[in-house]
Amino acid sequence: MGESFVKKRYITSLAAGALMAAMLPGAAMAQTEGDVGLTFALNPTCEFGQGSDMAPCEFDESGPIMTITFSNPQSVSGAFEGIAVLNGTYVGNQGDGTFESSGTAFFAGEVEGCGAGTVNFDYTSSGTINEDGSNSFDHDTYTIVPGGTLAVTGGYEQTAEETPNDDGTSNGFYTATYSCEAA
Known about the structure:
Layout: H1 2-23, E1 28-40, E2 45-46, E3 55-56, E4 65-78, E5 80-93, E6 98-111, E7 115-129, E8 135-145, E9 152-164, E10 170-181
Antiparallel strand pairs: 1-4, 1-10, 2-3, 2-4, 4-5, 5-6, 6-7, 7-8, 8-9, 9-10
């Protein structure tokens, strides 16, 4: 009887401890995965900055390297539902046909299972410049960084090439892997 009581008390203590840990602020919930769709703007704007006018992208294609500083609004759907603005730099090397891009994105909307608020991302991509000027991505990744109002970690990564729309916008397809933090 004594040994059985000790085992039951030990198991009960483990269960209570796990429950308490799950209730503590900052305790992570289970990781979630879902699809995300991004619709990129018709015309990203370039040479942005606080107090400056947004202007259409202009760059010199005569040299082997082109650098574009851009801001591109996005409509986001799926596991992340809302709007985002991607600000960054695109560097294309026409000599070897490659590109790299990096920047930040600010998202406002709803994250499935986490609630509504804002999320900040670091953005990186790289790949190949196609003959028609479009890009084929080796990777295209949004990683959540601190600073938003939602306690969420993770990010999303491109799973299929962008497809153009008739209105000049394009759609990107991503898989989100993220965790919500307990309130």
